[in-house]
Amino acid sequence: KNEVEQSPQNLTAQEGEFITINCSYSVGISALHWLQQHPGGGIVSLFMLSSGKKKHGRLIATINIQEKHSSLHITASHPRDSAVYICAVRSGGSNYKLTFGKGTLLTVNP
Amino acid sequence: NAGVTQTPKFQVLKTGQSMTLQCAQDMNHEYMSWYRQDPGMGLRLIHYSVGAGITDQGEVPNGYNVSRSTTEDFPLRLLSAAPSQTSVYFCASSAQGLAGLEQFFGPGTRLTVL
């Protein structure tokens, strides 16, 4: 079973700061997802990537397959970015199952 | 499109009671899944379905049943509720593989078993 570790568990930032959230996994994967969960519970998919880098607005996700590591960056953070960010991986042999990290709680203060 | 809908939003049960959590999607997705989310733990897969009439167990299936009679609906049944089933339950769907393309999540059902 793939183990997914996220760091930090909790992160507090001031508005405008550059944010980095990290995700490491133990076994080779075919895809990695970044998800966002706001207070109140709704979960939204941010990125799915299997190599390189993706960008959407102020969010950037990168993955290094050799090092089994991914990062989610938020530029010019804003209080509305406050949420739990979740990393999930699909192991190479399973098309149907995701293994999730425990999430990183981000709080951005004005 | 409504996306993925779940009912009810909140439910309180007594130990031993049964109930069904409803999940529906209007995106014609083949793949649907049920997860539970507990404090300090990542989302865990309960059951999943790769199409109408086809279901399979996930990581934590005990105490839950599912069926998939239509593409749209994927209900989760608790046969005899236990306090250990107190959790937040999420239904999700995707167009290609449960872990392939973008996952669409429902708003969740918060269940308390007394």
Task: Name a few traits of the molecule.
heterodimer, A: 110 residues, mainly beta, five-stranded antiparallel β-sheet, B: 114 residues, four-stranded antiparallel β-sheet, 48% strand
Helix-strand layout with pairing:
The complex is a heterodimer of chains A (110) and B (114).
Chain A: E1 4-7, E2 10-14, E3 19-25, E4 29-37, E5 43-49, E6 52-56, E7 59-64, E8 69-74, E9 83-91, E10 98-100, E11 104-109
Parallel strand pairs in A: 2-11
Antiparallel strand pairs in A: 1-3, 3-8, 4-5, 4-9, 6-7, 7-8, 9-10, 9-11
Chain B: E1 4-7, E2 10-13, E3 19-25, E4 31-37, E5 44-51, E6 54-57, E7 64-66, E8 76-78, E9 87-94, E10 104-105, E11 109-113
Parallel strand pairs in B: 2-11
Antiparallel strand pairs in B: 1-3, 3-8, 4-5, 4-9, 5-6, 7-8, 9-10, 9-11
What this model shows, in words?
The complex is a heterodimer of chains A (110) and B (114). Chain A is mostly beta strands and 110 residues long. In chain A, 0% of the residues lie in helices and 61% in strands. Chain A contains no helices and 11 strands. Chain A is globular. With 114 residues, chain B is an all-beta fold. Chain B is built from no helices and 11 strands. Chain B has strands at 4-7, 10-13, 19-25, 31-37, 44-51, 54-57, 64-66, 76-78, 87-94, 104-105, 109-113. Chain B is globular, with a radius of gyration of 13 Å. Chain B starts with a strand and ends with a strand. The interface between A and B is medium-sized, with 23 and 27 residues.
At a glance:
Chain A is mainly beta. Chain A is built from no helices and eleven strands.
What number is the mean pLDDT of chain A? 91
Give the biggest beta sheet of chain A: 6 strands, mixed
Structural shape of chain A: globular
Overall strand count of chain A: 11
Number of helices of chain B: 0
Distance between the termini of chain A: 40 Å
Poorly predicted sequence stretches spanning 5 or more consecutive residues of chain A: none
Q: Write down the secondary-structure element order of chain B.
A: EEEEEEEEEEE
Q: What percent of residues of chain A adopt helix (DSSP H or I)?
A: under 10%
Which percent band covers the strand fraction of chain B? over 45%
Radius of gyration of chain B: 13 Å
Residue share in β-strands of chain A: over 45%
Major beta-sheet overview of chain B = 7 strands, mixed
Shape annotation of chain B: globular
